Amino acid sequence: MTMRAVGILVLAMLAGWGALALTKQGAPEETAAKVLHVRPTEDFAVTGNGDAPAWQAIPWEPLVPRAAARQSYQTRVKMLYSKTGLYVLMEAEDRVLTATMMEDFLDLWNEDVFEFFLWPDERYPVYFEYEISPLGFELPILIPNFEGKFLGWRPWHYEGNRKTRTATTTQGGLKEPGARVTGWKAEVFVPYDLLKPLQNVPPQPGTRWRANFYRVDYDDGKGTSWDWARVGPSFHEFQKFGTLVFE
Fold first, then answer.
1. Regarding beta strands 85-93 and 75-81, do their DSSP bridges make them parallel or antiparallel, or are they unpaired?
2. Does any domain span residue 14?
3. What integer pLDDT is reported at residue 127 of this predicted model?
4. Is 124 helix (H, G, I), strand (E, B) or coil?
5. ∠129-131-133 over CA atoms, to 5°?
6. Are 164 and 188 in contact (CB under 8 A)?
7. Within a 13 Å sphere around the CA of 195, how many CA atoms are in the beta-carbon half?
8. Does any domain span residue 20?
9. What whole-number distance in Å separates Cα of residue 145 and Cα of residue 52?
10. N or C: which end of the chain has fewer CB within 10 A?
11. Backbone angles phi, psi at 11, to 5 degrees
12. 143: closest CA among 77, 227, 241, 30?
């Protein structure tokens, strides 16, 4: 082996050792992209308990507390799709229901809430946002987001086949403002008709959408949030959403 070859070998070994040392010292590593495989189902009744047989074979997907989280409550989701729409189930530990709003289409994110965002077609910066409170009040809106400038648009003719089917339940306490509980669940059905005119809808086997899931909780008057795919300060950083793969 020539001296030049020996030198190259030594440099390569040093480079490899340096990368390993940086990793051991806690250097930032790229986070793997989040992917959720969504299985098909026949349509079923939404009860808020997640007791439909179709849910039993579906594994939970955890949400992770974000930076400066004050609570470590377990939060997790499941998802299914049918020929008519999408099903989402959320289960969350909690101690107090910080929820006083008693109407739909209010600023629900200022109290305890579960949210999910659906971005079916990456060609257009437009996605669907859905929020639901522990009391069962909802906020379904369409979001055009152009370089961080966004605002929600309420659905028109929100009735019949275009309306969601939703239910929430509480565990360990009553479903009322300020109640002491051990947790709550939300079950939501989003019909494809509500997502019109978004493209790439309805999904077929092999279809891929971008999406994210969130939760916000205000125990002790201080906010804690969770996400599935990690985003920065704003939930609306849609380029960082995870991916749904429809089976």
1. antiparallel
2. no
3. 98
4. coil
5. 180
6. yes
7. 24
8. no
9. 36
10. N
11. -60, -40
12. 241
Q: Which long-range contacts (CB under 8 A, 24 or more apart) does 177-182 make?
A: 177/97, 177/99, 177/100, 177/135, 178/96, 178/97, 178/98, 178/100, 179/96, 179/97, 180/95, 180/96, 181/94, 181/95, 181/96, 181/97, 182/93, 182/94, 182/95
Residue type at 56? Q
Find the CATH number of the domain harbouring 94: 2.60.40.1190
Tens of pLDDT along the chain (247 residues) come to 443 443 433 333 333 333 333 333 333 333 579 999 999 999 999 999 999 999 999 999 999 999 877 888 999 999 999 999 999 999 999 999 999 999 999 999 999 999 999 999 999 999 999 999 999 999 999 999 999 899 999 999 999 999 999 999 999 999 999 999 999 999 999 999 999 999 999 999 999 999 999 999 999 888 999 999 999 999 999 999 999 999 9
Joined together, the tokens standing for residue 210 give 């971008």
Domain that includes residue 175, residue range = 33-246
Q: Which residues of 195-226 are buried (b: 16+ CB within 10 A; e: fewer)?
A: beebebbbbeeebebbbbbbbbbbbeeebbbb
